[in-house]
Design a protein that fits this description.
- The chain has a single domain, classed as Tick-borne Encephalitis virus Glycoprotein, domain 1, CATH 2.60.98.
- Helix content is 14%, strand content 43%.
- The strands form two sheets. It has a four-stranded antiparallel β-sheet with strand order 1-8-7-6. Strands 2-3-4-5 form a four-stranded antiparallel β-sheet, with no helix packed on it.
- With 143 residues, it is mainly β.
Length: 143
């Protein structure tokens, strides 16, 4: 009984002796992940981001072992007032971290939009319709 009381008092004295300083906690800007289906647009500020086309998809199906992971190439249009101001070809390679600068679709003082990846993954038993493709977008609100 005496040992338990000793350990409990040591535990509580440790907690009060070494308090955590909450002034040094770094908080990340809020991030949102959105789906952008082929042919659809995502509106941010006064700009629209449109997933225009899947140019190629040679990614290795998830149920197969491949020597090469393959890649998927897509075309993105960035529009303002329904006029294309920028067109980007993005190439996604499974398992490879892409440079954020290459994947940046839009950036302003308030927001950034990055392309994270393309889905669905290929499967050798299922034929993917073109309209089933979607991009994962990361929308970052800057503070």
């Amino acid at each position: 009984m005496m040992k338990q009381a000793f350990f409990i008092s040591c535990f509580f004295s440790f907690l009060f002796t070494f308090p955590q300083d909450s002034t040094h906690v770094k908080v990340e800007a809020p991030k949102i992940v959105a789906k952008l289906y082929l042919g659809k647009t995502y509106q941010i500020e006064d700009v629209q981001i449109k997933f225009s086309d899947v140019l190629s998809d040679s990614r290795c199906p998830e149920d197969v072992t491949c020597m090469w992971a393959g890649e998927a190439a897509v075309l993105i249009d960035v529009l303002k007032d329904d006029v294309i101001i920028k067109q980007k070809k993005l190439v996604f390679q499974p398992g490879k971290k892409m440079d954020d600068n290459l994947m940046n679709l839009f950036s302003s003082e308030k927001h950034s939009v990055l392309a994270l990846g393309i889905l669905p993954n290929l499967n050798s038993n299922i034929k993917i319709k073109k309209e089933d493709y979607y991009l994962q977008l990361e929308i970052i609100k800057k503070e």
